[in-house]
Design goal:
By secondary structure, this protein is an alpha+beta fold. The chain has 3 domains: 90 residues, no CATH class; 111 residues, no CATH class; 106 residues, Arc Repressor Mutant, subunit A. It is 27% helix and 25% strand. Strands 8-9-10-11-12 form a 5-stranded mixed β-sheet. A hairpin with a 2-residue loop joins strand 8 and strand 9. Helix 8 crosses helix 9. It starts with a helix and ends in a 5-residue tail after the last strand. About 2% of the residues have low confidence.
Length: 314
């Protein structure tokens, strides 16, 4: 199943803002449901009426034939046999979706999500500028005052919405950066990856940013691929990536914590500080995987306070 089909389903469900009948989805997107795990949830449809499994346009009453089979009486198509899948709908876990978008945009975890209006949220600040997520670009067109609630001086507001039709590059004005959801984000590993507007989409479809380039690490050290985690690359935070990049630059030479943290440009006393799992109830799966990668790849001599990468990574 292609990542493109899975991402198309996520975008479709977010844009809808409500459950969609499973049977009404294209075949490729129905197959993608199982690959998205907890990001997608099944929702029981109504017991008395269902979307016609033949035309997918009209809803009809469900009638039992007396044997265990059921039929949908569509106003246009007549009596049509109906299966269990025809009675199920699927919905996007929008808490998961917003959390992954925030990570992709490098929004600080302490920066909360605020609902501005129905279907419009401020999901935090990226590079000191507000980031707004909306289901529909035209909703903001109709009420431009919405962005006035979050604008900051000398800052360019970023707006993320699904792309529903072809429009210009700056539909909200030069002081607003518009990011079409389908074009500027995609699924990578267990999260989302942001495709910078300066990057051509054709390049990203053939070059995976998570692909190992420096040993098990990606070119920017934001991902690490390990045999122990074959299902997906491990996503690292900026700080965690800086630790691995600094260690990689020393090419296996044992270095002190002070020298290592200075090379990484971080103020913490020890590299493990960037990998410690948060208290119970706040544990993030990516953080647990990153800690596992640290324990496997980094060797330390605690008494001497020295750190280096295991030779197998080179």
């Amino acid at each position: 199943m292609s990542t493109r089909d899975s991402w198309a389903l996520v975008c479709r469900l977010f844009s809808a803002g409500a459950p969609i009948h499973r049977a009404a989805l294209p075949l490729q997107e129905r197959r993608a449901i199982s690959t998205l795990g907890s990001a997608i949830r099944s929702v029981p449809a109504g017991r008395s009426r269902a979307l016609c499994p033949y035309c997918h346009l009209k809803r009809g009453y469900i009638v039992s034939s007396g044997s265990e089979s059921r039929r949908c009486h569509c106003p246009d198509c007549g009596s049509i046999p109906i299966e269990l899948d025809d009675l199920l709908s699927v919905a996007l876990d929008e808490t998961w979706f917003k959390r992954k978008l925030r990570v992709a945009m490098d929004i600080a975890s302490h920066d909360g999500v605020d609902e501005i209006s129905d279907g419009i949220w401020r999901i935090g600040n990226a590079r000191r500028a507000p980031v707004v997520l909306a289901r529909d670009l035209e909703r903001i067109w109709r009420d431009p005052a919405i962005l006035g609630r979050v604008r900051v001086l000398r800052g360019k507001t970023t707006v993320i919405t699904p792309l529903k039709r072809k429009i210009g590059a700056a539909p909200l004005g030069e002081d607003v950066q518009w990011l079409p959801l389908q074009e500027r984000f995609t699924l990578y590993g267990s999260g989302l990856s942001f495709i910078d507007p300066g990057t051509k989409r054709e390049t990203t479809t053939t070059s995976d940013p998570a692909e190992p380039d420096n040993g098990p690490f990606s070119a920017d050290f934001r991902w690490v691929t390990l045999a122990e985690w074959p299902d997906a690359p491990i996503r690292l935070t900026k700080g965690q990536a800086a630790i691995f990049e600094a260690l990689w630059s020393f090419r296996g030479v044992k270095v002190s914590a002070q020298r290592l943290m200075a090379r990484a440009g971080l103020s913490s006393a020890k590299p493990i500080d960037l990998f410690k799992v948060k208290p119970k109830g706040q544990v993030d799966a990516d953080h647990v995987r990153a800690l596992s990668a640290y324990k496997q790849l980094v060797i330390s001599a605690r008494r001497e306070g020295l750190y280096w990468l295991t030779p197998e990574v080179y």
